[in-house]
Amino acid sequence: MLDGSMTREQAVALIDEQNRYPEVSEDDEVIGNASTDFTLIETGNFLTDAMREKAGTEIALFLDNGKDGRNNGKGVSGKIYEGEQTEADILRIFPDLRREEKGELQKVTMTGQKLLDTLEYAIPVDNDSRGWFYYFSGLRMEFAPAAEPGSRIKKITDAQGNDIDLNKVYSVAVMDASVPEDAVISCEDTGLSIKDIWTEKIKILGTISPGGDGRFLAVDP
Question: How far apart are CA 65 and CA 175, in angstroms?
Fold first, then answer.
């Protein structure tokens, strides 16, 4: 694509095909199946639902794969494809875990105002902060990823349709080092890894399918 011999669409199709049929070692354990392909948003929804359930919190947040050129890989980097699910698929979706990062589940608290600020601006980066945004559970949101931070949330409520109370303290499940430190009031380490939570949830369900609840609607600026 860089030298002009392949279009962007062709490059995306090639990568998509490689992700759909990755090389699998003979000892790679099958942990479950997916009934069909997920979108990136549906993949994020599945993970954050599992995080929120495990942590017993009101909300869960997990980063998209950042595009700042330095921390690339800090979030969801791939989607779930139809068929058998293995450890190799987990490492494809969460590339940071390849570098021996634990990816620990934490239970934090933050005010409604800090929650909105976190969703608008994500974690600080050196250049283009629009490369970061969060998948979530426990919320419903219309979000414009391409808009300038500060005007990306077009509409947001909790899962029951109630407005976010700016003064209320919410409990939020996150991965360590994935939300701004100044947004957090308290933090509790669970000792659980994102990888183990993902694996356990698929094993329990056996076959997973996209939720399709429309909680995350990406819109134009």
Answer: 13
- What is the DSSP secondary structure assignment for residue 179, as one 8-state letter? S
Contacts of 202 (CB under 8 A, 6+ apart): 31, 32, 85, 208
- The tokens describing 110, both together, are 């933050």
CA end-to-end span of the chain: 27
pTM of the model as a whole: 0.86
Distance CA 136, CA 174 (A): 10
Q: Specify the DSSP class assigned to residue 56.
A: T
Band of pLDDT at residue 65, cut at 50, 70 and 90: confident
pLDDT tens, residue by residue, 185-208: 999 999 999 999 999 999 999 999
Integer Cα distance of 43 and 135 in angstroms: 9
Torsion of CA 190, 196, 202, 203, to 10 degrees: -110
- Given the structure tokens 């980097």, which residue do they identify? 77
What is the per-residue pLDDT across 146-168, written as a single tens digit (0 to 9) for each? 898 899 999 999 999 999 999 99
* Distance between CA atoms of residues 150 and 65, nearest Å: 20
